[in-house]
Amino acid sequence: MDRGSVIAMRMFVAGLIAAAAVTFAGCSSFNEGPGPAPVALSGRVNNEGTRDVTGTTRLELELRNYAFKPTFLRAQPGQLLTLDLANTSDVAHTFTVVDQPNGVDVVVQPHHTMRVHVVAPLQGTLVFVCRFHEAMGMQGAIFLLPGHPVIGAGAVTSTTRTPFPSGWG
């Protein structure tokens, strides 16, 4: 091959790599940026993104800086989710499912994790908050379709506590 052909081939390959990177980035199920909230919640919401969890059963939910990350979880009706609540901040937070008798209500100490199990609603939205910081916008939701009313679903909790490895936080 002559020098011109080699350069043309390299440019073609570089273009394919760039196109593939853009395509795979667009397929991500996690929206890092806040973007618009997929469902309306009352009061202030510190939106740290949305994640589609329909293809998984376990997820780390970060509790930090008065926000849940991700803030919104899109699930399938009745889907059982195992949430590893990771408090990466220097203050305690709660994970409290609202409008649900005997729902999840746990306190996660700074730089600790706690595992909970939540069942997505059969319809509508399941709202969760930090009782300590809800007024500051620390709330989120598990949703199926935008605009549906809040309808409770079963939830259970376990008390598995795991401290972060040293050096975190």
Question: Helical segment tally?
Answer: 1
Structural class given helices, strands, pairing? mainly beta
Strand elements, count: 12
Main β-sheet, spatial strand arrangement = 1-2-5-11-10-7-8
Mean pLDDT: 79
Classified in CATH, the superfamily of the largest domain is Cupredoxins -  blue copper proteins
CATH architecture of the largest domain: Sandwich
The low-pLDDT segments are 18-32, 146-162, 164-169
Entry summary:
The protein has 169 residues and is mainly β. The chain has one helix spanning 3-26, and strands spanning 30-31, 50-52, 58-64, 67-69, 72-74, 80-87, 93-97, 105-108, 112-119, 125-129, 139-143, 155-163.
Kindly describe this structure.
The radius of gyration is 20 Å and the shape is elongated. With 169 residues, it is mostly beta strands. The chain folds into 2 domains: 1-29; 32-163, Immunoglobulin-like, CATH 2.60.40. The strands form 2 sheets. It has a 7-stranded mixed beta sheet with strand order 1-2-5-11-10-7-8, with no helix packed on it. It has a 5-stranded mixed beta sheet with strand order 4-3-6-9-12, with no helix packed on it. Strand 3 and strand 4 (67-69) form a beta hairpin. It has 1 helix and 12 strands. It has one helix spanning 3-26; strands at 30-31, 50-52, 58-64, 67-69, 72-74, 80-87, 93-97, 105-108, 112-119, 125-129, 139-143, 155-163.
